[in-house]
Every structure is written in structure tokens, then in C-alpha cells.
Design a protein that fits this description.
Rossmann fold; 8 helices; 10 strands; about 20% strand; dipeptidase; dipeptidase activity; protease
Length: about 220
């Protein structure tokens, strides 16, 4: 897949331009499916009002409200109960998947349970736009600080589509989010390379090539 891994959504012109480049056509000519599933597993996010805000494009994290040709909802928890013929063609035909934040292990669990994780390698032209946990799920590990929920197996691995980890919502000291000091403490428990990034930053990945797109602040931590 083509990946645009964001901390806070498509928050500035640079990230939006990177998205259009990945799509290869204007946003207004592109179809989207939004995936709210991760929100339900996080104690401070959903279900309820914030899930509706994301789906309706009223969340304050620009993703669903960018002016897409069409937008639908792909709820991963529902997929195991319906035939693949009902949803796999829809995913294959869609230009972009907009994946909400929330609890990363809950999202990962339902990606695996639904079959979406197995489908990803065949979606070579699809763009994945992650928001916070929707980005972190593509990494090999998230660290104990970002785990609120665990699957019945206790497995805390994520998908490992990329080979680096992400600490989102980097913020200046005293501001809401994760301080650089907290990010450095987090990375001490990560076994591989990692990035800490604020909500004005995204990571673009195409065919294994990694590019940081930012109008804000970020830091790379080598392995």
C-alpha cells in the first residue's frame, strides 16, 4: 500500500499535497472509506459522540471532510459476520482508507479478525491515511505507554508493515500531548528505529521509501 501516517490528520498544505501525490489525482475525484473501529477500544474516545464526529467529518482532525468524491464507512467489527463478497470488492475499488485513532491494539485485533490485514498486501494502489493509532497499527511495536486494551491472546504486536515505531502528538512542554522528554522515555523501550512527531507532521511511505512531511516538529530515533 501507499501510506500516509499522520499524528493529527491532514492538518496542513504539505500533508495535503503529499496525499494528492499518493492518490495521483485530485481529492475531489477520489473515493474514500473511513474506518472508525479503533475509537471504540479507547476509554477516552468512543463509542459515542467522538466516533460520530469522525465519521461525519466534524472531529477537528481533517480527514473525512477534505472534499472526497464519495465517503463510506467500513466498520471492521461487522465484517466477520458478513460474506467477503459484500465488502472486499468495495475495498479494492476505493482509492483511500481513512483510519481513525483510538486504541491501536483494538484496531489491530479487528484488522486481523476481519480479514482486512490479510487483504492489505494486494492493495498496491490504495492509499492508507492513518490518524494516530491508525498510523501506529502499521508499525512493529507501540510500547507499553500506548496500550490500554489487549486482545484475548495477550498479543501486543502490531502489523509491522513499516519497520519503525511512532510516538504521535509530540507537543511543546506544558502543552497537551507528549513532551519530548516523554517521547525519549518511550523510545527507550522500543527495540527498533522510531519517530516522534507532532500533529503538523506525517510520514509518507511508498515502496519502502520513507519521507517525513512536516510543517511542525519531529525527531528520528535510530535503532
Amino acid at each position: 500500500m501507499k501510506l500516509l501516517l499522520t499524528s493529527g490528520g491532514v492538518t496542513n498544505t504539505s500533508i495535503r499535497d503529499a496525499l494528492v501525490d499518493l492518490l495521483g489525482k485530485p481529492i475531489a475525484d477520489s473515493s474514500a472509506l473511513c474506518i472508525p473501529t479503533g475509537m471504540y477500544g479507547h476509554p477516552s474516545v468512543g463509542p459515542g459522540t467522538r466516533a460520530w464526529q469522525f465519521i461525519s467529518g466534524n472531529s477537528g482532525n481533517p480527514m473525512v471532510d477534505l472534499g472526497w468524491k464519495s465517503v463510506g464507512v467500513l466498520e471492521l467489527t461487522a465484517l466477520p459476520s458478513i460474506d467477503e463478497e459484500r465488502w472486499v470488492p468495495l475495498v479494492r475499488e476505493t482509492d483511500v482508507l481513512l483510519v481513525a485513532g483510538g486504541d491501536v491494539l483494538y484496531l489491530c485485533y479487528w484488522m486481523r479478525q476481519s480479514g482486512l490485514a490479510d487483504l492489505l498486501p494486494s492493495l498496491s494502489e490504495t492509499v492508507w491515511v492513518g490518524l494516530s493509532a491508525g498510523s501506529m497499527v502499521m508499525t512493529p511495536e507501540v510500547g507499553e505507554d500506548f496500550i490500554q486494551w489487549r486482545p484475548p491472546t495477550g498479543d501486543d504486536s502490531t502489523l509491522g508493515i513499516v519497520d519503525f515505531s511512532i510516538c504521535p502528538h509530540l507537543a511543546q512542554d506544558g502543552m497537551p500531548g507528549n513532551s519530548m522528554a516523554e517521547a525519549e522515555q518511550w523510545v527507550a523501550g522500543i527495540s527498533g528505529p522510531a519517530y516522534a512527531m507532532d500533529d503538523e507532521t506525517a510520514i509518507k511511505v511508498v515502496d519502502g521509501t520513507v519521507e517525513v512531511v512536516s510543517e511542525g516538529h519531529w525527531k528520528h530515533f535510530p535503532a
